[in-house]
Write a structure and sequence with these properties.
By secondary structure, the chain is an alpha/beta fold. About 35% of the residues lie in helices and about 20% in strands.
Length: about 375
């Protein structure tokens, strides 16, 4: 009997990775294929879901949302390792982005989740930082962890724009357990913090920032670095490190705390036991909503295909749509690509019917095996 390992990421706007795997599995099993379901992620939204699907338990709590409002959120924990997802507490999809929200959004809630994990006894904390709303250099996160940020008139308010008025930073009050844990920054981007390839310039526009807001956010991040250099020599060098610009600079804050930067999909596959579950598998099926040039730069499907190839297992991709030509798809590690658009060309109908189309795609894929 053919054995297939399903390791898809989410189809954004339609289905989470767990649901994608389940609908594909239904189609494959309908014609007798043996299936193992292993939803994955790349460090962005869906990272906690992937960790829970791999057997970790859920920890629920209330924390500060992107604009200071209380939100219900969660992380995954197995008694040793906590998997925290920024998108689940201060995510871009939790607000309607515009220039005002781009200036005000904070990473404080992520810090509050980290405090919960630290006080819960975690020895390793994986921080998935994709899908963030803020561009505050991780200032809000550090404040929740015990750092003090002061302006000319006292405590500094949250948000990247406020960093332009930063007068002093104190790190002596950081949580006592930060030096005892292994922090892992899981991200699919390796941008520096500042400059034309930095957090504000590259990702600010998708968070609603206009030209004026981008300039102010860049100024605030530069001020943040300057003040940190005074109390933590080497902070300026860290701003140029790969991953410092991830999640509006939360990557920088994590690096300041001693985090190791790793590609998100590698971390998720390791947590999920991907290598172990490849044993006896004939084919890996991976995918995401849109397979395109961006997928080639750290996204989950390519990471899955490469990990499978390293163990001699072929991989195919499923997606909502693909803009990769056959050559680029092969170079990325996919034996073939199967798109919902081939079954339903209308984008809105395809997204609305993604579940049933994935099931049909699973059945058709099984026929090729």
């Amino acid at each position: 009997m053919t054995r297939v390992l399903l390791a898809p990421d989410k189809f954004k706007g339609s289905l989470g990775a767990t649901a994608v795997a389940a609908r594909l599995a239904a189609g494959l099993r309908s014609v007798g294929v043996e299936v193992d379901e292993l939803p994955v992620a790349d460090g962005g939204d869906g990272t906690v879901e992937a960790a829970l699907a791999a057997g970790m338990r859920e920890v629920a709590l209330t924390a500060t949302g992107p604009l200071g409002e209380p939100v219900r959120t969660r992380y995954a924990f197995d008694g040793e390792t906590a998997v925290v997802e920024m998108a689940a507490v201060t995510g871009l999809e939790m607000l309607r982005p515009d220039a005002t929200t781009a200036r005000r959004a904070t990473s404080r809630g992520l810090g509050e989740v980290l405090v919960n994990a630290l006080e819960g006894g975690a020895r390793t904390v994986v921080i998935g930082v994709g899908g963030s709303a803020s561009t505050d250099g991780g200032a809000g996160m550090l404040a929740a962890l015990g750092a003090t940020l002061s302006g000319p008139d006292g405590a500094l308010p949250d948000g990247g724009d406020a960093l332009r008025r930063l007068a002093s930073v104190g790190l002596d009050g950081l949580h006592r357990r930060l030096g005892e844990v292994d922090l892992v920054l899981a991200s699919d981007v390796d941008n520096p913090l500042l400059g034309p390839h930095g957090a504000a310039a590259v990702y600010g526009p998708q968070k609603g920032a206009d030209a004026a807001a981008l300039a102010d956010l860049e100024e605030g991040l530069a001020c943040w670095v300057d003040l940190l250099e005074r109390v933590r020599p080497g902070a300026r060098d860290l701003a140029g490190s790969p991953g410092a610009g991830a999640a509006g600079g939360v990557g920088y804050g994590c690096l300041l705390l001693g985090a190791r930067f790793r590609p998100g999909v590698e971390v998720v596959l390791e947590l999920a036991g991907f290598e172990r579950r490849l044993a006896g598998v004939d084919l890996v099926v991976t995918g995401e909503g849109s397979l395109d040039e961006q997928s080639l730069h750290g996204k989950a499907p390519v990471g899955v295909a490469r990990a499978a190839a390293a163990h001699g297992v072929p991989a195919v991709a499923v997606c909502g749509r693909s803009t990769l030509d056959p050559r680029r798809a092969r170079e990325a590690g996919f034996r073939s690509v199967h798109a919902l658009a081939d079954l339903e060309p209308d984008v809105e109908r395809s997204m609305a019917r993604a579940g049933e189309l994935l099931e049909e795609l699973g059945t058709r894929l099984a026929a090729t095996l």
